[in-house]
Amino acid sequence: MVTIKDMAEELGISTTTVSNVIHGKTSEVSQKTVEKVEKLLEEYDYVPNISARNLARNRSKIIGVAMKSRKDKYENIIADPFFGELLGVVEAEIRSRGYYMMIYTAEDIGEILRYVSTWNVDGLILVGMLHDDFVRIKSKYKKPVILIDSYAPRDVAQYVNVGLEDEKGGYLMTKYLLDMGHRKIAFLADNMEGVDYIRYTGHQRAYTEYGLKNDPEDLLIIRPGMMERESSLMEIYEMSKNYTAFMCCSDYYAVMLMNYLSERGVRIPEDLSFTGFDNNMLARVVRPALTTVKQDVRKKGTVAVKCLVDMIHGSVPEENNILLPVELIIRDSVRKID
């Protein structure tokens, strides 16, 4: 393989000049020399050895992204509109800052730990970690780490998280439904951990402010696994007659249930109102259009990458728990009860 030194000798110029042309630093190189170097690069089909250069700088220029998935929920977590959009934003932001992205998804934190602890990356973004997940990873991985949408206990370990005003989102949506006259509201989630649990606490706060009792039986847990989903949806369909509104922890579940019930003759919103959370593509294309809580996924991804790159370069974050704002988006899926 031809080297920079070989090309410099062939052209009768310095290796520094050849290197500057390769890396786009041509302000002090004549146009004629630039053209000669570029022609030779094309002839030799020269590809710079980025790995060797970064190794010399003691940096890989790679940022790792580890996502904790759930086999019972996703065959492919990246197919979920929220995670797909988030990863797209993160990758674009990482690339714009001169880095490359390496990604790994698994449901077993032990498996994630085994891989990320061996990665030669400059920093790590963790998505969807719960409880002691971060503590276990941090015990093995000593480089800068940013979490997204994670609720590790702060009294156990210090960390930097980029999240959302999830409690406020749950509160605002419940308050809206109560203001619209609804009193029998089902809260639908697939677990009571992390963001879903925090959104449920906001749901409870709105009930308390109204002086109403929030019945635990109105918390409906959908079983997301492919084998169990049909029976779970059928159970929810039978229970839907007890409610005037469904408040779903994601647009994904809201749209899934809306379609399932509509196929069985339930009119939305005439018979049953629906709300979601995220304001992703599904919320905008379903009919009736879904009332939901908006989060800025683009901002979440860009803020996380910026914080991590700053930490890689030695900056100390001014804030450890960055909670981005939410906004209520009113569309057509909720009716007013007089």
Your description of this structure?
With 338 residues, the protein is an alpha/beta fold. The chain is 43% helix and 15% strand. It contains 13 helices and 12 strands. Helix 9 (194-209) links the parallel strand 6 (185-189) and strand 7. Helix 6 (109-116) packs parallel to helix 7. The model has no long low-confidence stretch (mean pLDDT 87).
Average pLDDT level: 87
CA radius of gyration is 26 Å
Q: Characterize the overall form.
A: elongated
Helix content: 40-55%
Instruction: Give the strand line-up of the largest sheet.
Output: 2-1-3-4-5-11
Using DSSP, what is the number of strands?
12
Order of helices and strands: HHHHEHEHEHEEHEHEHEHEHEHEE
Protein structure class:
alpha/beta
- Tell me the span between the first and last alpha carbons: 79 Å
The number of distinct helices, counting runs of at least 4 residues, comes to 13
Largest sheet: 6 strands, parallel
Low-confidence stretches: none
Strand percentage = 15-25%
Summary keywords:
about 350 residues; six-stranded parallel beta sheet; about 45% helix; about 15% strand
Short account of what is shown:
This protein has helices at residues 4-11, 15-22, 31-44, 50-56, 81-96, 109-116, 133-140, 166-179, 194-209, 226-239, 251-262, 281-285, 297-312, and strands at residues 62-68, 100-106, 123-127, 145-148, 161-164, 185-189, 219-221, 245-248, 273-275, 292-294, 321-324, 327-329. With 338 residues, it is of the alpha/beta class.
